[in-house]
Amino acid sequence: MPTLATLATFIVVVLGLFLIPGPAVLLTITRTVQGGRRAGVMTGMGIALGDLVHTLCAAVGLSAVLMTSALAFDVVKYLGAAYLIYLGIKALRERPSDPQLPMAPRVSAGRAFVQAVATEVLNPKTALFFLAFMPQFVHAQDGNVLLQFLVLGTVFVAMSAMYTTAIALSVRPLGKFVKRFTWLLRWQGKIIGSLFIGLGLRVAMQQR
């Protein structure tokens, strides 16, 4: 099991990522506007299910790596940290821009769910993110590695589902919030970039 300190850090980092609107949030808002709250909620559930698939794949694969070699797992963690730092630098270098909602045709709640699952599962960037992100909070000395992955993944998926559901149920108030804090959306790349770089450096420093 992850320690309470590790779990708390994980939750704080995930909350930080959630607070900055990304493609999943924008898609949820779009589906809610075009198909109603039910479509928005089902879109969020679909995204969460897709994330669960990525979590399970990462858990099984990386657990197998650890059982093969602890050194190999450390290498994976370092590569993951390097990838997060790369994403952070890339985000920091992006020019601020006005947020735009993705355009999508009106669909039913059921179809919105299926499309969200397929979009998330088939997104290679999401797969790479989970492979890089999850190992940073897994420590062999804390017990069964597969269980640690599953606990962290379950927490992530549950937080994602609750977050997107809250967004779908409060699109109008959220719209007023966005208008007041457009600067936050314009600079989301800088904030996310700082989070990624900080996480990557944290792991590198811990291993010394």
Automatic annotation (TrEMBL):
Predominant subcellular localization, coarse grouping: membrane
UniProt keyword terms in alphabetical order: Cell membrane, Membrane, Transmembrane, Transmembrane helix
Membrane-topology annotation of the record: Multi-pass membrane protein
Domain of life: Bacteria
Transmembrane parts of this sequence: 6-29, 41-69, 75-92, 112-133, 145-171, 183-205
InterPro entries: LeuE-type (IPR001123)
UniProt-annotated location(s): Cell membrane
Cross-referenced Pfam families: LysE
A single MF term (Gene Ontology): amino acid transmembrane transporter activity
Any single GO CC term annotated in Swiss-Prot or TrEMBL for this entry: plasma membrane
Coiled coil (residue ranges): none
UniProt keyword Transmembrane helix present: yes
UniProt protein name: Lysine transporter LysE
